[in-house]
Amino acid sequence: MSEVPAQQAVNQQPQQQQGQSGNRLAPKVEDLYLESYAFTTAAAIVGSVDRKIFVLLRDGRNLFGVLRTFDQFANLVIQDTVERIYLDDENSDGTKDKVRRYGEVYRGVFMIRGENVVMMGELDIDTEDDHLQGLEQLPFEVVEKELKERHARKVKEEKLRSKKLLSQGFVNDFVKSDMY
Amino acid sequence: MLPLYLLTSAKNQPILVELKNGETLNGELVNCDSWMNLTLNNVVQVSENGTNFLKLPECYVRGNHIKYMRLPEELMDYAKEQTLLNLEQRNRNQKRRTGGNFNNNRRNYNNQGNRNGGHNYRRNNNNNNK
Amino acid sequence: MDHNSNGGGSHQSGHTNNQRRRHNQSQKPDGPKREAILDLNKYTEKKIRVKFIGGRQIIGELKGFDQLMNLVLKNVEETLRDPEDDHVLTKEKRNYDLVVVRGPSLLTISPLDGSGEIENPFAQSTE
């Protein structure tokens, strides 16, 4: 235990940690734990287990289901999942719709990789379907097709924009898979 | 049960994997590792636009490029069973050890203000301190 | 706090938990593995199809590999993609004699043997 004076000045705690005595560069065991776990992802999610949640993925999908389990990366396992696509007002020819449309399909058990989640939240099962009252439900395939067309158009637009901006020396930050 | 444990218990079951680029792989899960890399058998790969189909006897997929996976429903029942069994066993073991006295309620899965936010990270950290 | 908590079978007690387990009871579920799950030895000298992050696709003979899944391929043929749409493959190819593939940029690996294009296998028969 050489260099003890220097050590003790830095390290107020008595030598409880094993293998720490000569090695000032080793991580202190207390640094491995947080002061408070209240604001970790896990703490935020754990309250929603076995409850109905909604998840927004980076590709724009809305998933609704019961959260069963998760881990520190926010990988989620959701049961009885329903995928719903909302079509907002804009029509393909630029006109505005009178009524918003949506379509949904039952998917089953999902395991989502955490990095693809934009946001998630708990649903109140009593009021979760209230907002669907004023919307028109269409078959999922129809809605899916329309969404794909809108995406394709957006991608094309953005590609053109990127080119133009690039010619001026600007960079357009657009990732095709981020459609949320 | 953590997601990766659930995935490991899904071996030999059909699985649908969607990658970040929109391609889907439908096949039977052979193996998986802690990075979510997968090996699948009897795979049908569907391109992003849903028009091209490729049949592959085997495929290895990198975990970091997965968007999500869809698993069979029956798997959840199996997982629930397993968790219950383990819980029962642990309770039984603890009972034997402490003579029926659950003093500290350590095995409490229900996250009542647990300092670790409900997850026993300490288990992993103990190994690092040696 | 309770430093003894191991959240499961305690390793500290002298009696092993195995002795306590009944014959039919299941063990704690297997965790995910830490070693490589793909044995590339079985693909050496064979043609494999490799996809990259970013969309490139090649077919070549696997000559060597390492733990990080860097690969060495010979007689490689890259299938070029439509410049307009990254996902549409054209008939054009580009050939390379020797290629070293970086593990981190790999997306999928599959053997060429036994693979082929098929019609929609999910199509329902029309009513």
TrEMBL record, chain A:
GO terms for biological process: deadenylation-dependent decapping of nuclear-transcribed mRNA; mRNA processing. InterPro entries: Lsm1, LSM_dom_sf, PTHR15588, Sm, Sm_dom_euk/arc. It is found in: Cytoplasm; Cytoplasm, P-body. It comes from the Eukaryota. GO terms for cellular component: Lsm1-7-Pat1 complex; P-body; ribonucleoprotein complex. Residues 40-126 form the Sm domain. Residues 1-23 have a biased composition (Low complexity). Component of the cytoplasmic LSM1-LSM7 complex which is involved in mRNA degradation. Belongs to the snRNP Sm proteins family. This is U6 snRNA-associated Sm-like protein LSm1. It comes from Pichia sorbitophila (strain ATCC MYA-4447 / BCRC 22081 / CBS 7064 / NBRC 10061 / NRRL Y-12695) (Hybrid yeast).
UniProtKB/TrEMBL annotation, chain B:
It is found in: Nucleus. One of its GO terms (biological process) is mRNA splicing, via spliceosome. Gene3D superfamilies: 2.30.30.100. It holds the Pfam family LSM. Residues 2-75 form the Sm domain. One of its GO terms (cellular component) is spliceosomal complex. Coiled coil: none annotated. The keyword Nucleus applies. It comes from the Eukaryota. Its main location: nucleus. Residues 88-130 are annotated as: Disordered. Residues 99-130 have a biased composition (Low complexity). GO terms for molecular function: RNA binding. Binds specifically to the 3'-terminal U-tract of U6 snRNA. Belongs to the snRNP Sm proteins family. PANTHER family: SMALL NUCLEAR RIBONUCLEOPROTEIN SM. LSm subunits form a heteromer with a doughnut shape. This is LSM complex subunit LSM4. It comes from Pichia sorbitophila (strain ATCC MYA-4447 / BCRC 22081 / CBS 7064 / NBRC 10061 / NRRL Y-12695) (Hybrid yeast).
TrEMBL record, chain C:
The keyword RNA-binding applies. Signal peptide: none annotated. Keywords: mRNA processing, mRNA splicing, Nucleus, Ribonucleoprotein, RNA-binding, Spliceosome. Residues 1-37 are annotated as: Disordered. GO terms for molecular function: RNA binding. Residues 35-115 form the Sm domain. GO terms for cellular component: catalytic step 2 spliceosome; Lsm1-7-Pat1 complex; spliceosomal tri-snRNP complex; U2-type prespliceosome; U6 snRNP. Residues 1-11 have a biased composition (Gly residues). GO terms for biological process: mRNA splicing, via spliceosome; nuclear-transcribed mRNA catabolic process. The keyword Cytoplasm does not apply. It is found in: Nucleus. SMART domains: Sm. It comes from the Eukaryota. Belongs to the snRNP Sm proteins family. This is Piso0_004200 protein. It comes from Pichia sorbitophila (strain ATCC MYA-4447 / BCRC 22081 / CBS 7064 / NBRC 10061 / NRRL Y-12695) (Hybrid yeast).
